[in-house]
Amino acid sequence: MDALVIQSQANVVADQIHAVTDWPDEPAPPGGSVVVRTDCSALNHMDLWVGRGVPGLDLAYPRVSGCDACGVVDAVGDGVDAAWLGRRVIVNAAVRQPDPIRPEDPTANSVAALYYLTGEHTNGMHRRRFTVRADQLVAISDEADPVDAAAFGLVTLTAYSMMVTKAGLRPGQWVLITGIGGGVATSALGIARWMACPTIVTSRHQHKLDRARDLGAAHTILDEGQDWSREVRTITHKRGVDLAVDSVGKPTHMSCIKSLARGGAFVTPGNTGGPRVETDQARLFWNQLRLLGSTMGTTDELRECGALFDAGSLRPPIDSVHAWRDGQAAWARLESQQQFGKVVIDWRED
């Protein structure tokens, strides 16, 4: 079977990407699962982590990463409705793990979901066919563009879950998004635009700010290492923003905290710039702020996102599309950090 394989762990992942034709074929799906024939798959930052090594995980190589794809259901296992056959789908790569039930657990348990990620904990979707559980599937329109659909899933789910479900974003509220250009950040901008929220975005690259303007960002800030919270306060007439979406971490955290309005929320799905941050606890209690962490989301949330996709309300910006045999170039583009939007791999032609 055709696949894009990470041959071994390395700091420069693109050099380890091999397009192969002899990856083992998918067997018949087990009960509760399906086999999906891949039309397109998309890269995420996780594809770099898998190539460089994920702290706490003992990953064996060679392996196939990939946690985003659009395809058609080719086969179904026992207990799966045959109506799935032939349906175009996207996939929630986040597989919820069962929680242990302990006798001392409180009735209102606050323990958050634990997810394993398809493409990280297991081999993933950058191959001609892959097997997933049927409860990970979300059906989309047969007329959907597989490039857009493949680029849509995980980043939109992540942004939707943290902004709408967890932070409780309401239409018209002020939103700040750091590091615009990556998949989650651009998805967050799309959700803010859909909710008619005035949005401020930051980036170290002027060309990314220019693209963000085209996609509906109301204000842009060139991040040159300064404390840009004063610029945010000026833009919002000293009020501050209702929600700060930060996937950068250490370089931007404190500016985000200082940019929040009273009662505002800071939410993070990751930290590409480093996890060790310095915060201001006085601002936290005095301004009654909320600090939230968010990891992926539920399939029900992805179904809500899928409905918005089918309605044309949300579309991911596409940076580039690569034939599957040119997978090394796709990884190199992601590794360059010059991309704006999603890097997609097309499997529809040999």
Secondary-structure-derived class: alpha/beta
Rg on CA atoms, Å: 20 Å
Shape: globular
**Beta-strand content bin:** 15-25%
Could you estimate the helical fraction of the residues in percent?
Answer: 25-40%
Distance between the termini: 12 Å
| H/E element sequence | EEEHEEEEEEHEHEHEHEHEHEHEHE
Q: Mind describing the biggest β-sheet?
A: 7 strands, mixed
Question: Tally of extended strands?
Answer: 17
Number of helices: 9
Q: What's the rounded overall pLDDT mean?
A: 94
Q: Which consecutive residue ranges, at least 5 long each, have pLDDT under 50? A: none
Protein topology:
Blueprint: E1 3-6, E2 17-20, E3 33-42, H1 45-52, E4 69-76, E5 88-91, E6 94-96, E7 115-117, E8 129-133, E9 137-139, H2 146-166, E10 175-177, H3 183-194, E11 199-203, H4 206-214, E12 219-222, H5 229-235, E13 241-245, H6 253-259, E14 260-268, H7 281-286, E15 290-293, H8 299-310, E16 318-323, H9 327-336, E17 342-346
Parallel strand pairs: 10-11, 10-13, 11-12, 13-14, 14-15, 16-17
Antiparallel strand pairs: 1-2, 3-4, 3-8, 3-17, 4-5, 5-9, 6-7
Helix pairs in contact: 2-3, 2-8, 5-6
Give short descriptive properties of this protein.
350 residues; six-stranded parallel beta sheet; single chain; seven-stranded mixed beta sheet; globular; alpha/beta
